[in-house]
Amino acid sequence: MGSATEYNRRDIFKRAAAVTVMAAAGGPLLAACAAGGGSGSGSGGGATATGSATNPFGVKSSDPLDVVIFNGGYGDDYAKAIEGIYKATYTGANIAHLATQEISGKLQPRFNAGNPPDVIDDSGAQQMKIDVLEKASQLTDLTVLLDAPYRDDTSKKIRDVLLPGTVEQGTIDGKMYSLNYVYTVYGLWYSNKLFKEKGWTPPKTWDDFITLCGTIKAAGIAPFCHQGKYPYYANYLILDLIAKQGGLDLVKRIDALDPTAWDDPAALAGVSAFFEIMQKDYLLTGTNGMTHTESQTAWCQGKAAFIPCGSWLENEMIKITPADFDMAFLPVPSQNGDKLPQVAVRAGAGEPFIVPSKAKNQAGGLEFLRIMLTKEASGKFAASANSLTVLKDGIGPDVVLKPGTKSSAAAVTAAGTNTFNFTYPDLQTAFDQALQDATNELVNSRMTPQQWIAAAKAATSKKV
Prior knowledge:
Elements: H1 18-33, E1 65-70, H2 77-89, E2 95-100, H3 103-112, E3 119-121, H4 130-135, H5 143-146, E4 149-150, E5 153-157, H6 166-169, E6 171-172, E7 175-176, E8 179-191, H7 192-198, H8 206-218, E9 222-224, H9 232-246, H10 248-255, H11 265-279, H12 292-300, E10 304-310, H13 313-316, E11 327-330, E12 345-354, H14 362-372, H15 375-385, E13 388-389, H16 403-415, E14 419-420, H17 424-427, H18 429-443, H19 449-459
Helix pairs in contact: 1-3, 2-14, 2-15, 9-10, 9-11, 11-19, 18-19
């Protein structure tokens, strides 16, 4: 879901602290909302489109707009630019802008008091869990946004200009409650400069990856590091290995919390492949106890060759990455017998934006999202955050992308229709946390791949 500068979003975008965050979200928030949110359990707010093609939600120019942005890897400059576009249209609007990594800490009291912001970039370690909010009827059903006119061409609807998977990523029980704005690509990352200097070839198969790791270790560099305190990063690699081995049907079964999915041999094959990194002592010393920023800094300093992450990495580390680092993206290498090709990548909509059902300016929140889905706003985001958005053809030729972003965009092009994504991290957060807990044991060699599989299967009973 991609944003962060984690000292909390991906400091963690999930978590050590997320366990307490989720517990908090399930406690006072649910208690406060159970008696009076939306129009029934899980129904969300009753937003309607009653205006014109240019103002479908009937925004009043004089109404203030309250915007909260997760201040992570994507920063908040793009949001300020979008607010500028909003202000140019609704000139009387006073816009309150808060950029924070303490999403739950800052906003849970406001939700409990019935005074939430109008639009929220709901990300980070302290993300307000979307499945929890939906069950408490605290979210606006965004179907009205999908059916609204596209600002750049009002003959089209918003749903017509979104990349595949965007609607599904934010959908719970048939209704879309979050607009996942960033088209995030997940995989392994390396320094092209380092690889060229050492004469190393980026591996296409897992066997070649393990062999290369031996060569890298012999050169005095740790082959692999990860954001140890936040195991969901390592899970990007584990679950991608499983997905490529087992195919799209297995991805769907995992998302559906089908316990039999973990009986598929592809699941054990993926976890076992990942476990080779620990068995062969290819981890950067201390990485299991590092935060995302600590491990990513070590990687930028050349102390490790590979790191798993989403495509927010380049922008998140932009201030400390050497100018000649030449960041590059690598699709997860193939195992023998994979059902998906080597070029397949996990890619899809991330960075969820929500409009609370009790927002004072619900119409303005919806309009803010509609403005985000314009070529002007999409281009400003790409230039500011070095990442793609979910708007089809949203990046014009005038937008200059950095090496890592170019590399990940090229990987998406090469993948073509061979992309996949998981929804469980956003929509089944208790299950996600259980997988993270198991992975923390795995990377510390306190659990075997077989035990990890057993833990994953048991976790399918854990629903928020």
